[in-house]
Amino acid sequence: MKSGFDFIDFRAIDFNWQPSNPFLYDWQDYRTRKDRSLKIISDAGYEYPAPGKYTACVKVVDIFGCDTSITLEVEG
Fold it and tell me: Which domain covers residue 68, as residue numbers?
């Protein structure tokens, strides 16, 4: 292991997350047995439908199967 990112197996982003709705995978990246690479920066290029404040949720699953989510307020 060279960095903390080596422990991450899966990442996903829901760009318009709402607490009352299930997590929707707008973008995801994951490792496989043959390809252990994982993008550090999303290449989703997501555009919000209208200007305003939105909540994005990032979900991360590590090599041990533990998942963590964090929400971020973004301006669309």
Answer: 4-33+50-75
